[in-house]
Amino acid sequence: MQVFEEIQALLLQHKPFVCYVKPNEAVWNLLVQQTDEIIEFSNQAGFVFMPFHEGKQLVIPFEGNNFSQGNLENLEKKPTESFTSESNQKEAFENLVSKGVSTIQQGKFDKVVLSRKIVLKEQIAIVETFQNLISTYPTAFRYLFFHPKIGLWMGATPEQLVKINQNQFETVALAGTQLYSENVIWATKEIEEQQFVTDYIVTKVKDKVNNLIVSDAKTVSAGNLAHLKSFISGELTADFQANDLIKALHPTPAVCGLPKEKAIDFILKNEGYNRKYYAGFLGEYNKDNQTDLFVNLRCLEVENDVVNIYVGCGITKDSNSEKEFFETENKSMTMRNILVSK
């Protein structure tokens, strides 16, 4: 199929590009940068790729570059391999979670999102893995991003950061995770966690936007997982535009915690690795007056001869460190289940 052959050629030529498919759509979008320079984002219309905290804020502008689209035909599922991770991280991660819980119990913050990087010492077939990702997660935002000076990332994220059309915006408050089943029952911890996120977003925007509407929380599925999600929408004003809204929302409590500054400080001091673009955001910025951005979750990075899978979970005062470790294991399966060996 044409687009995947083109992706293969772009990887060989070391050309920056992004290929993406929006949730519940069967249309591929391919944006190819004509040079290999790093273009930093300063409000250009384009595909943005933003880090969690520090790092290059990238954009591949639409202007002056090649943008194409086409329909996805039926993709055959390629046979996958289960790779083992290089070391046992269970104890280290559980210690990190316990430290987070005790810091919450001391009243320093209400919630913190802690993550880890699972390193698989394997080479994957990038295009075939991406094909699997597209066909396996039809309701997610699916992408493959490559820049020779930044690296290669792909993911299937269930979480919208924000969608803006003209001056109307919509965002989601997503939190709580469990394995999906027919009748999902939520514990107080998860209901509270999701309410934290909703309240935080509402507080950030309520005095700045018009016609704010907040829906009730509903159960939604993402791959084999269930989450709690509510929709928040409203109208931007002359004094509060798209960029102001994005700055107010990122990083959301769903990827760092609450209060935000204290949670980020704890993450940077204790996680022990750089999240890079994991838990950052990506997507179309100001394409035909529309912005469609997603949080970079359920993603992997191909780095030299290893694959890094990034996973995290929300910690509150009631968190159990072993249970949280297994939650990150469950989340890692989103990426582990689609890997095709080179």
Summarize this structure as a short list of keywords or feature phrases.
alpha+beta; 342 residues
Structure description:
This is isochorismate synthase. The chain is 27% helix and 35% strand. The chain is α+β, with helices and mostly antiparallel strands and 342 residues long. It has one domain (2-336): Anthranilate synthase (4-Layer Sandwich). The strands form two sheets. A nine-stranded antiparallel β-sheet has the order 5-2-1-7-8-17-18-6-14. Strands 3, 4, 9, 10, 11, 12, 13, 15 and 16 form a nine-stranded antiparallel β-sheet that branches. Strand 12 (218-222) and strand 13 (225-235) form a beta hairpin. Helix 2 (90-105) packs across helix 7. It is globular and about 55 Å long. The two termini are 19 Å apart.
Shape: globular
Q: Give Rg in angstroms.
A: 19 Å
Distance between the termini: 19 Å
By DSSP, the count of extended strands is: 18
Binned, the helix content reads 25-40%
EC number: 5.4.4.2
Family: Belongs to the isochorismate synthase family.
GO molecular function, one term: isochorismate synthase activity
Keywords: Isomerase
How would you sum up this structure in a few lines?
The protein has 342 residues and is an alpha+beta fold. The protein has helices at residues 2-12, 90-105, 126-136, 188-205, 242-249, 260-270, 321-336, and strands at residues 17-21, 27-32, 46-50, 58-61, 66-71, 111-120, 141-147, 151-157, 160-165, 168-179, 210-214, 218-222, 225-235, 257-258, 281-287, 290-295, 299-303, 306-315.
